[in-house]
Amino acid sequence: MYLLIFLVFAGCGNSNPTSQNVDETPTRGNIKIAVDESYQLLIDSEVYVFQSLYKYASIKPFYKPEIDAVNMFLQDSVRTIITSRQLTQEQIDYLKGISIYPRTTKIAYDALAFIVNRENADSLIRFYKIQEIFTGKAGTWKNVNPKSKLDKIKVVFDNMKSSNVRYFLERFNLKKLPEYCYAVDNNEAVIDFVQKNKNALGIISLNWISDKQDSVSRKILSKIQVCAISPEANPDGDYFYKASQGFIVERSYPFVRDVFVICRETFAGLGSGFASFVAGDQGQRIVLKSGLVPATMPIRLIQQKRENIQ
Predict the structure, then answer these.
(1) 295 domain-assigned
(2) Any idea what the CATH number is for the domain that residue 102 is in?
């Protein structure tokens, strides 16, 4: 039913240096960064290791919905953001107009995972059924599986300003979501809602459930079950794929996205240093351990096992 694949490695506040930050370097200083809350577990680990290595560096992450994080960046409230989208050309032109030239670095590949209540028997969903759910053509579980004992689907997002909502609007070329799509407060609230509602279909970043050694991920996985989705290229085939590292690399799992660090510093400050760290060897190994796929380090598949649906 699933491929089991293990991965190993193959081989930016005020943007100008002033009297307030003349002593700041790539490994020293005190800054705030804005982070898409989808990546809280990953960035908590990155910040912890970075600060352990550089004792004079202090980084305070603010975990926000994507729209809020980008707005903080444009308003110069933070110099560095981490998000699953690049700046638009309009935003880049605005920054260039005030002599800011943002630097964007891809640091990881993420996936959006679908989660359901543990009593929901429909944990295998075909790609085109997901598309029908978001285009308003499949509003009940019986539309997904005629044998389902459940009724109306309740699609649950973390926040209407989140990157998860934007992703599906763009992926299926939608202007709005169906009326049975709801938003709560954050990813943890999505998990709680799914645990308590049999009809729920939750959408969260893989990062919340990808690190099997992390106590938060283990606790979440004990509350819900993760759906496997058929590939877009062969939606009627016999294979379904969960959001996981191997299936992200192969693109067997159909809902994959990039993760970026964007920095607006005009000097070599702490934001630039942190961006380089996350994109470097140590930072990418943290990405790998977190269950996401590193973007700047080569990887290779070393074991593969395929199992058909019975």
Answers:
(1) yes
(2) 3.40.190.10
With a CB cutoff of 8 Å and minimum separation 6, the contacts of 278 are 46, 82, 105, 107, 261, 284, 286, 287
- Which among 64, 95, 110 is positioned nearest to 244, based on CA atoms? 110
Q: Are 215 and 287 in the same domain?
A: no
Residue corresponding to tokens 């509602």: 197
pTM: 0.88
310 located within any domain: no
The tens place of each residue's pLDDT in the chain, 310 residues long, gives: 444 444 444 445 444 444 445 589 999 999 999 999 999 999 999 999 999 999 999 999 999 999 999 999 999 999 999 999 999 999 999 999 999 999 999 999 999 999 999 999 999 999 999 999 999 999 999 999 999 999 999 999 999 999 999 999 999 999 999 999 999 999 999 999 999 999 999 999 999 999 878 888 888 999 999 999 999 988 888 899 999 999 999 999 999 999 999 999 999 999 999 999 999 999 999 999 999 999 987 766 554 444 344 3
Q: Which domain holds residue 99?
A: 4-109+257-305
